[in-house]
């Protein structure tokens, strides 16, 4: 029996992860005894959740909160909660408080629990730990030299995860997620938003802005793949992972042109016509500083699975969100 | 005119750095207006120090202390103070408190000072940020995957240094020091101690233990070179350093056999005979996990200078410590 705690269960990936675990009723074959879902707003109870499911709102980074979250010793803890890149860049203090101090407080609470308590902690990191210049593809042993405060906070948390794991205080696995495409819901202000927008908006009959050239290449994974990474990480052997606890997750290196070809296949010419090309030098410059492709050898060897194709990514979006095409 | 603050001025490198700056009366050509020396014990006043020199004892990592240290706005701050590797491994809390929280409190105090205060911060890091397996030599863009808490604390501090520099809160340069050989003074308990011991003890007529094989290769720099790195770092252009603020310093990859050949040249056969070979599997295992050699391309391009040879390292030791050979 497994008790799983998801911190950040109201976010897009956290919510889908909770839904998937609840639906399966198990985690990597072990029956689910309890599901604890927390976020800064109260997460929804997912369909099929065990009777013993708790959904609560708290700021896990505040003093004393982490201790409460782990009071009944969940065997698996997913830490997805974070201040996103843009906000962490604008609000320096808040970014460090949540993304670094929150992580550390949780790890300290686990360490302080003692009594051989050593949960699997799945930490959601990001390819934002990398900064230009890059080799192409980026190998697993390339340095983390982030160029945003968010990336720094994630890279520092990865180092803590490794050290607390090495000392036996917890058993961590860190996942450097690709950009998630297709993000469901409304467009957001993220500079990477158009990678989802040029699929999502046209499939919903709406215009989408494309601010970069068609040959821009980017590293992507579907929400479904991201959920799969988290579930697989909950069960992977810590010994097999070794001391380098955080890894680049497998994704697909997809160009904007390839995205549009896929859109054509699913939505036809009428969908493609809804893409309005309007180059934005600011976004072009940001995107030029992002990783384009990786060689995620370690993650593949450990059994983490990328999407099969960009077509599969779009098909998953259409299925999961019930889009009419 | 330059006001320089040295935090950790009673340590071996800090003391020599203070002495060198005081003796020169300037820092990279700029006359020294003031020298502030602090450590956990009161540092000595170095010969030739300017009239306006203050030596004080404080724990810079305690709340409120960093603010006092920077109250009169030193233009250059050397942060050498640290809990060493062995102690940080044994006392987890103390290591993080001094080596991580202390660094962060100093950086936060500088940021909070505002008023365009943006000092050059020279941060003393270590090749302990690297962990096996390594390529040989290790390039500048190899990942920091430390296998000690000390290495993690240094790697995290490097990330902070880069982020605070990128945001314009300070102007940082981080130095990953090689193992310092020949360390003057008494033997210490460090696993790397024998690299100095097999030179120092025989030159002082005493027996030295050699716990590893003669073909063990290690990355070394003299105390004089380490002082030179710090002084050069105080004057190097932050723009030239770029966003990756911390760098491997140039050293020499020297085998134990080469050390002994040099000892022979300076101390003759009678010195070499004072080396007692007694293999220690524990130390052999630790040493096997250490970096052997680096390709410190960036530091060399920026003008950081290694020792000329291991003979020069031993000659510097003999001169500086006034050894009779």
Automatic annotation (TrEMBL), chains A, B:
InterPro entries: DenD, Epimerase_deHydtase, NAD(P)-bd_dom_sf. Pfam families: Epimerase. Keywords: Carbohydrate metabolism, NADP. Residues 4-208 form the NAD-dependent epimerase/dehydratase domain. NCBIfam families: ErythonDh. This is SDR family oxidoreductase. It comes from Roseibium litorale.
């Amino acid at each position: 029996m497994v008790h799983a705690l998801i911190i950040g269960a109201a976010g897009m990936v956290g919510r889908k992860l909770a839904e998937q675990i609840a639906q399966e009723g198990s985690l990597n074959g072990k029956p689910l005894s309890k599901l604890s879902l927390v976020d800064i707003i109260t997460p929804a109870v997912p369909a099929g959740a065990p009777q013993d499911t708790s959904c609560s709102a708290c700021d896990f980074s505040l003093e004393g909160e982490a201790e409460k979250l782990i009071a009944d010793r969940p065997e698996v803890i997913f830490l997805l909660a974070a201040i996103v890149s843009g906000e962490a860049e604008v609000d320096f203090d808040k970014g460090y408080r949540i993304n670094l101090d929150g992580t550390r407080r949780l790890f300290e609470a686990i360490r302080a629990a003692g009594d051989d308590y050593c949960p699997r902690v799945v930490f959601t990191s990001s390819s934002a730990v990398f900064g230009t210049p890059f080799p192409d593809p980026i190998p697993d042993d390339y340095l983390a030299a982030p160029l945003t405060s968010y990336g720094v906070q994630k890279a520092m948390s990865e180092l803590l995860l490794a050290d607390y794991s090495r000392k036996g205080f917890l058993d961590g696995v860190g996942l450097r997620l690709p950009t998630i495409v297709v993000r469901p819901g409304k467009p957001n202000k993220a500079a990477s938003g158009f990678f989802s927008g040029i699929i999502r908006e046209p499939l919903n009959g709406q215009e989408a802005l494309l601010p970069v050239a068609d040959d821009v290449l980017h590293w992507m994974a579907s929400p479904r793949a991201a959920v799969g990474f988290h579930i697989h990480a909950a069960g992977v052997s810590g010994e097999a992972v070794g001391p380098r606890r955080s890894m680049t997750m497998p994704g697909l290196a997809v160009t904007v042109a390839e995205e549009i070809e896929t859109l054509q296949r699913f939505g036809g010419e009428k969908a493609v016509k809804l893409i309005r090309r309007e180059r934005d030098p600011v976004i072009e410059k940001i995107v030029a500083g992002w990783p384009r492709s990786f060689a995620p050898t370690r993650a593949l060897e450990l059994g983490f699975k990328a999407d099969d194709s960009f077509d599969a990514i779009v098909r998953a979006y259409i299925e999961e969100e019930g889009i009419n095409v």
